[in-house]
Amino acid sequence: MSVFGSSSGLSSQASSLTGSAAELSGDRDLNSPPEDSVSDLAFSPQAEFLAVSSWDKKVRIYELAPNGDSQGKALYEHQGPVLSVHWSKDGTKVVSGGTDKAARLFDVQSGQSQQIAAHDAAIKSVRFVDAGNTGGQIVATGSWDKTLKYWDLRTPNPVSTVQLPERVYTMDCQQQLLVVGTAERHICIFDLSNPGTIFKTIQSQLKLQTRVVSCYPSGNGFAVGSVEGRCAIQYVEDRDQQKLGFSFKCHRDNPTPGTRSEANVYSLNAISFHPQYGTFSTAGSDGSLNFWDKDSKHRLKGYNSQGATIPCTAFNRNGTIFAYALSYDWSKGHQFNRADYLNVVKLHATREEEVKPRANKAKR
């Protein structure tokens, strides 16, 4: 039973895989959440710490206890809404970027933050990367000024600036792979052994605006999500793409059979890969969550709308916790950002049925 690529969406056979909001009723709320829409979530790779960026101009860092409790451990501020946050590999630093055109670095041990990067427009995405021969991690910043910049934390100026075809909307990295999604559906692929040069530029196979890219843990490809409620499974090497690449519909309401009703299509906002299994989640403006196995082309589990749009998601370091924000994603403009709109971060204890690949999947 495959539900990927189906022209009619999920088949009737897949209905047993769809869960209700009640099945997520045990998910814990993050204590003292942001005061405005959540923009990004990132778990530390070394401990149970979660960084949360928000439109309230703040980055908050929480510690998660084994019993599901959470408490705030640190907070620092930008001069404008914060759009992206990421941890260093050793878990000692957090980097963030926002509409103030600045990236800030927070040192977990000292509790101090400082500006470490600047652009001519908002910084949409930030990542720590292992690039070139720098001898350590550097920071990559992608901006609406159509540039990607790399920053060595020991020097005040960028070590490299790459001109991109359009404004940066999304960015992710794994291993030696860095992928940048821009306006006009451009996808720029970087080999971090040569970070200052674009390895390959392709056009997204999805027809409408790119919303998110997320790299596979293996570093040989990435998934792309768009505003049209579709997801594309993409590989770096052409031969792998021809053999294994595909796209499928998700995050849309299917029209009622026998009627002339049309499907409601929602933006796919977030794609997160499980760090051990390589399965992945999708979440969107319809407020639903899905877990997928790309190699066997199956949906593992789906959950209906949680009552609010979902702008971002993240797995913790071993994939036992899945965090998702129920928060306004600006998909309907500023007039829908009501004061009473739900604004929480949920912590979900993952189950094997949601994230473990199917036993009979083909090895790829």
Describe the overall structure.
This protein has helices spanning 238-244, 352-355, and strands spanning 18-19, 28-29, 38-43, 49-54, 58-64, 70-77, 82-87, 93-98, 102-107, 112-118, 123-130, 137-143, 147-151, 160-163, 168-174, 177-182, 186-191, 200-203, 210-215, 221-226, 230-235, 246-249, 252-253, 264-265, 268-273, 280-284, 289-293, 298-303, 313-315, 321-326, 344-349. With 364 residues, the protein is mainly beta. The model is unreliable at 1-16 (pLDDT under 50).
Compact overview of the structure:
The chain has about 375 residues and is mainly β. It is about 5% helix and about 45% strand. It contains 2 helices and 31 strands.
Write the layout of secondary structure elements.
Elements lengths: L17 E2 L8 E2 L8 E6 L5 E6 L3 E7 L5 E8 L4 E6 L5 E6 L3 E6 L4 E7 L4 E8 L6 E7 L3 E5 L8 E4 L4 E7 L2 E6 L3 E6 L8 E4 L6 E6 L5 E6 L3 E6 L2 H7 L1 E4 L2 E2 L10 E2 L2 E6 L6 E5 L4 E5 L4 E6 L9 E3 L5 E6 L17 E6 L2 H4 L9
Parallel strand pairs: 1-28
Antiparallel strand pairs: 2-31, 3-4, 4-5, 5-6, 7-8, 8-9, 9-10, 11-12, 12-13, 13-14, 15-16, 16-17, 17-18, 19-20, 20-21, 21-22, 23-24, 25-26, 26-27, 27-28, 29-30, 30-31
Defining key terms:
3% helix, globular, 364 residues, 46% strand, disordered N terminus, mainly beta
